[in-house]
Description:
Blueprint lengths: L1 E9 L8 E8 L5 H11 L3 E6 L12 E7 L4 E2 L3 H14 L6 E6 L2 E8 L2 E7 L15 H4 L8 E6 L11 E7 L4 E4 L3 H15 L3 E6 L5 E7 L4 E6 L1 E10 L4
Parallel strand pairs: 2-3, 4-6, 10-12
Antiparallel strand pairs: 1-2, 1-15, 3-4, 4-5, 6-7, 7-8, 8-14, 9-10, 10-11, 12-13, 13-14
Amino acid sequence: MQIPIFIVDAFTEQLFFGNPAAVCLLEDKLEEDLHQKIATEMNLSETAFVRKLHPTDDFAKSSCFGLRWFTPTNEVPLCGHATLASAAVLFCKKKNINSSLTFVTLSGELNARQAEDHIILDLPLYLTYPQKLKVNTQALLPAEKTGRVKGLILTLKGRFTGKPKGYDFYSRYFAPWNGVPEDPVTGSAHAVLSSYWSQQLGKKEMLAFQCSSRGGELKISLRNDGRVDIGGHAVIVLTGNLTLKSE
């Protein structure tokens, strides 16, 4: 059994920047335990599995697919950058004919649409309850053992001036509880940050930068229906096939 697999740098226009995700296109149903085994083997912050919902579906012609995301240690309910990467593979490598795609996920239906030279994700907008906190990343895991915390966001206000580009706010995201010490660029975290900074800045259109070592840029537009559009570029780095041999 061969599975088409791609590695995509999301939320960047430059190779080896942004957040890398693996994307697997599933023609047939995959044994449940293989999702996690493949994600662990890929050892990226997220591996996405795009699956056909019906036998007659076509990656080049259909507009609705199933989508799941796995870190090296577990499945997660939402991942922005791996959704962007999945859409980029379908639009750019499979030449999908639709201008908008729908993904059926654990977080409901998520839409991704082409907009000029980038892709816009339609994500749920989450309310925020900010906490003032001094962070020691090495102490995060032993400090939180309730299982309620899945990630930690650090953020600060930006200046929309400067060279080559100014940003409304900056952030970093840590998720050692999901096997990701620091995530390079996190679309799902910006579904939270968008709400917070919109209230703080009085703006619905914002430009954000996640300042990990790889770094990535996100274009944000809050909507009036309780959702947020998060736009970004993607660069496909690797194309290949994963061969699964029966034992």
